[in-house]
Amino acid sequence: MTEHYLKIKENALKIERSISNIIWLNGLEKFNEFIHLVSNSLYLSAIELSLYNIFEKSEITSKELFDLRNNITEENVNISGLHNIFADSENFKDSFFSSDLMFEKTAKRIEEYIDYARMLHIENLSLDYMTFLNRENISEDEADSTFLKLLTRIDKYANYDVKIHIAPMNKENRDYLNKYVDAIELIKKARFQNIKVLLDLKEIFSTLSFDLKYFKDNRDYINHFHISNLDGGAITFTDIPMHNKMVNTSFSQDYTNNFFVMKINNLTAEEKSDIENYEKYIHVFKEIYQVPLELSPFCSKLFMNFIYRHISAEGPDIEHLYNYDIH
C-alpha cells in the first residue's frame, strides 16, 4: 500500500458516522429508544438532531434542551449537528424573498437554532429543506443580494461558535440555489467565517451536477455531508463513479470532514417501528464506511426508496451490482 493510500484511509476512518432521527418515530419517548439503539450500534457514534421530530414543536425550552443533551451524552452518543429547522412548513409557505417579514422570520429562526446549538455544545447547523427559497419573478442577482444579507447577519451571530451549512435543493422543490456549485459561488462573494455548503448526495444525483475538478478546487467550502434516499428515483451506471470520486476526493484531502450523516424521511411509521428494518439500514452504513476504499462499489436497494453505494477508488464493479447479500 502506498503512503498516499494509507493517508486517505486514515482520513476516512476519522470521519464519524452519524444518523438523523428523522429515520425514527416522532416524540420524546420514541427518541429515547432511538438513542439507546444508536448507543448499542457498533457502526454509529452520533445523531444529527431534528428537534421538531423529537418535541413536535419549533420552540424548545432551555430545560428541554439540557435534559435532551444529558440523555444523549449519558448513552455515550455524540451530536453531529442540527437540521430540519424549518419543519413547521405551514409557517414558511411564503417566499423568503416576498417581504421583510419573511426575511426577519427566517433570520430569527436561524438565530434561535444557533442558540440551541450552543446549548447543546454542537458546531453544525444545516439549513436544509428550505423549500420557501423561491425567487417569485425577481432576478437571480436580486435574490443573491437578499440571501447574502441574511448570511452576513447569521455569520456574525454565529461568532465562530457554530458552522452554518447552506443546502442546495433541486428545481422540483424551489427555483433558487439548485446546485452545490451555485451555493459555493454565492458564498465566495463574501468573506464568511462560519458559512459553508452542505452536500446532500441526493441533490448531486438528482441534478447530475457533480464536477470533480470543481469539487477538488473548492473543497474548503464543504465540510458536512448528508447521505439520503433518492425518493425512488432511478440511478444510472454513469452516476455511480461520480459518487465514488466525490467521496474519495474528500478523503484524500487534509482531513476536514467531521461527519457523514445518514437520513431518510419518507418511510412509513410501520417501517420505522420495524427494528429489523432499522438494523438492516444500519448494516448498510457499516458496510459503506467501516472499511473505506477496500470494497468494490456497487449499487443496490435496501428499501423501495433508499439507494446506497460503496466507496472505492476504482469505480463501479458492475458484476456485484445485483448480488449483495444483506446478511
Q: What does the model show?
A:
This protein is α/β, with parallel strands linked by helices. It has a single domain, classed as Divalent-metal-dependent TIM barrel enzymes (TIM Barrel). The strands form two sheets. Strands 3-2-1-8-7-6-5-4 form an eight-stranded parallel β-sheet. The chain has a two-stranded antiparallel ribbon with strand order 9-10. A hairpin with a 5-residue loop joins strand 9 and strand 10. 39% of the residues are buried.
Tally of contiguous helical segments? 12
Largest sheet, in brief, is:
8 strands, parallel
CATH class: Alpha Beta
Strand coverage percent: 5-15%
Overall mean pLDDT = 76
| CATH homologous superfamily classification | Divalent-metal-dependent TIM barrel enzymes
Helix residue percentage:
40-55%
CATH topology: TIM Barrel
Question: How does the helix and strand content classify structurally?
Answer: alpha/beta
Q: What value does the Rg take, in angstroms? A: 19 Å
Q: Give the neighbour order of strands across the main sheet.
A: 3-2-1-8-7-6-5-4
Q: Indicate how many domains the architecture comprises.
A: 1
- Would you count the extended β strands for me? 10
Q: How many angstroms separate the termini?
A: 29 Å
Order of helices and strands: HEHEHHEHEHEHEHHEHEHHEE
